[in-house]
Amino acid sequence: MPIKVLSPGLATTVQDLGRPGYYHLGIPISGGMDRLALRAANMLVGNDEGAAVLEAVFMGPELEFTSDAMVAVTGAELPPKVDSDVREGWAAFEVKAGQTLSFEYLKSGARAYIAISGGVDVPVVLGSRSTYPLGALGGHEGRPLQAGDELPLGTGGGKAGTSVPENLRRGPGMPAELRVLTGIYWYRLTEEAQGNFFEDTWKVAPEADRIAYRFRGGRKASFVDREPPFGAGSDPSNIVDGCYPYGSIQMPGGTEPIVLHRDAVSGGGYFMLGTVISADMDLIGQLQPHVPTKFTEVDMETALGARHERHALLDNIREAIG
Amino acid sequence: MASKQILSPLPGTFYRRSSPDQPPYKDKGDSVAEGDVIGLVEVMKSFNEVKADTAGTVVEFLVENEDPVMAGQPLVELDG
Questions:
Q1: What pLDDT, in 10s, does the model give residues A185-219?
Q2: Residue ranges in chain A assigned as alpha helix (H)
């Protein structure tokens, strides 16, 4: 029995853990921006961790249920309501047939993950149910939800009251700190610009989205003089086209760092000064516009250690939920 | 007369007019009906209209044009 979308929120999309394996063909990995929150939401309602959920950004949708289901909302603090009763985040609760799930104003973070027992059963496209709106691929008709949509559900179980202990929940920091490994084009920046990048406090630009997070407010970078390589053009922030990794940081014209995220393009002609480490990518998905952000330089060992810690945190959540 | 507030539904950048060469949607002293647009919030490359969920007369705007706003932040104070 489907869920009816009464109002869609701002840009609510169906997402799972993503669509790896096609990035070299220009199809991004997509999937939830905060994958830890997505996995936890699924665990709470008894789903596979990679089941499809709804990712709501800044504003929740209004959904009418036509059959009983278990629901959990994790990630951003976007308090869910069943009819007019507020429910707790990071915990499973029941929504009965005929009831409406809606949300209060966003209190912190940016993206909430709404898992429903059985998962959102849209067709699998290239191995994933994730929506890639730019390519009109996956999810519900390849686009964000609209009023009047009906979403099919799988069948599932789950137990009301199951919750993630508070010490295992993760929200955004304030100010945010993003750890960075510098990359093969780092040498293009002057020593002064290299120092400024890590010293300055940047702010999330309002246009930040699933494709990339843009930051502004730091000093303009200067580049080491060079003879432009063939095909790169005269702008010192250009390179001969290269592959863009997930998490890579461009700085077109040396002005605003742009961190590529789940729906990013896979290649192009901007230099990348480095990448945000994998352990901090979930956090980016929880940053609101104007949040002050510092980039911190780390080495490979620290980055791998942070990834290990992230995996351990996930294991602890699995254990706590059982 | 009770005082009421219109809250921002979204975080982003607040604008009081539809484009720089247009007059503000509402000014101090204007009457606002439920459903009237009182401003725009820009976020994720889109401009989202903020509609009044209550009626009244504008006492004052609590944020300036182009101010950053948070979700749930009061934007306008109304009387009536």
A1: 999 999 999 999 999 999 999 989 999 999 999 99
A2: 35-44, 191-199, 281-284, 300-321
